Amino acid sequence: MKRIDTMEKQVSKIEKKYQETETAFNELVEDCIEFDGKLRNDNNPRPEMQLLRAYLQQYEDERIPLKEEIDYSKSQLSDLKDDFENGLYDETQREEYLASEEKAVKTLNAKLDYFLDRFEKQSEFIKSFEKQ
């Protein structure tokens, strides 16, 4: 049960990280619109803008599946806890299910870390461009 409790706490942190990522995404979309207008006036296409758009599109493609994975993990952990309390699985099965959920939680965390890192770097780029 302790492993499940630990994973439930991790998923709770992942939910918060997802909200942070959503906020960063929304801010970058707004910055991208403003930034795009400035670049049109500059007549100098920048690869950074293409990279920014690519990260935004990548997240747009992943955001709903990420939320669904978070919700699914919460549900799985709750179900596992109930099943374990009711003694439905032997030790081998328990270990398999726990290992699978731990992997899913790590993967979710890594995906969100990836996007947050990219969004922070792109935000820094936009701020440095605005100073020019």
What features would you describe in this structure?
There is one protein chain. The protein has one domain (2-131). The protein is built from three helices and no strands. The chain has helices at 2-42, 47-85, 91-131. The N and C termini lie far apart (55 Å).
Summarize the structure.
This protein has 132 residues and is mostly helical. The protein has one domain (2-131). It is built from three helices and no strands.
Class per helix and strand makeup: mainly alpha
Uncertain regions: pLDDT < 50 for 5+ in a row? Answer: none
Measured as a percent range, the helix fraction is over 70%
DSSP helical segment count: 3
User: Based on CA inertia axes, which overall geometry fits?
Assistant: rod-shaped
Termini separation:
55 Å
Q: How would you describe this structure in keywords?
A:
single chain; mainly alpha
What's the arrangement of secondary structure elements?
Layout lengths: L1 H41 L4 H39 L5 H41 L1
Helix pairs in contact: 1-2, 1-3, 2-3
